[in-house]
Design a protein that fits this description.
alpha+beta; about 40% helix
Length: about 120
């Protein structure tokens, strides 16, 4: 078995604990890179993505980047897409990233947008 990096171990630990406590709620999964931030609402029981948003979407591409403001915009857009799909309650999967900065901005905006977690 290959040795996992500390980040991969933390991501695995967070996701495992969410599955134990989350029950049947969909997961709001976050991924951030140096240039972009991505968010998707995943229904693990059906194995499909319910809603997604990122800084690469056509309507914001070019003017958004790796900032807290762009992350907040992604949070609002993913919350709107999730509500349109009928999802109001999720569990927040920070994906191994610390709850600080862009990740926190996205989570706060998603809460303001109507998602409960």
């Amino acid at each position: 078995m290959a040795k996992l990096s500390l980040f991969a171990r933390r991501r695995q630990r967070v996701r495992t604990s969410l599955r134990a406590r989350g029950g049947s709620r969909p997961r709001l999964s976050i991924h951030r890179s140096g240039r972009h931030i991505y968010a998707q609402v995943i229904d693990d029981s059906a194995g499909r993505t319910v809603a997604a948003a990122s800084t690469l979407d056509k309507d914001v591409r070019g003017k958004a980047g790796a900032t807290a403001e762009a992350a907040a915009d992604v949070g609002k857009r993913v919350a709107a897409a999730a509500r349109k799909a009928g999802v109001t309650q999720v569990v927040f999967d920070r994906g191994g990233f610390l709850f600080h900065g862009r990740v926190k901005a996205l989570a706060d905006a998603a809460r303001e947008g109507g998602l409960e977690f």
